[in-house]
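Lab channel / #folding
Pinned by the channel admin:
"Please post every new chain as: sequence first, then the structure tokens as a reply. Keep commentary short and put observations after the output so the thread stays searchable."

First post following the new format, from NK:
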Amino acid sequence: MGSFPARHIGYFCVVDAVALVRGLYESYQDRNWDTAATFLHRDAVLDMPSTAERLDGRDAVIAFQRDYPEPWGVLTVKRVLADADGAAAEVAVVDPSGRVFAFAAFWRMDEGLLRQGVEYWTEVGADVPPPSRASSPITEAARKAGADTSGLA
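Reply from TO:
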């Protein structure tokens, strides 16, 4: 496996979970499957509750990404946040027709690699809020503009 960004805390060397998660998704965008694989534990598991799918093992995760029909669009990592056990990412994907998808990914680490992941996907603007919230002027403006409503441009 490759060399990973790390921080030194006293005598300890801590692999940077933010760099691992960012590196994984940026490798997906680059379609660099060999590099993407270096971020994943051999026993990685990825759950996708929106479609009730589970990918079991690094090879299965990489095969899913590699074999997804092209062109699947442009993937952009908007931000990655970490805690002591792993990291979470906010990611946007714009498909060739201009539809915007977003997902939140949460990864736990084991042995310095990403092992347990979950991705929650949605199509931006596809779900209509209930009438009590849809009529809010700020919501109406955001929906008309197709704006990024994450608050983090």
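NK: DSSP finds five helices and eight strands in the chain.
TO: also worth noting, Residues 69 and 95 are 12 Å apart (CA to CA).
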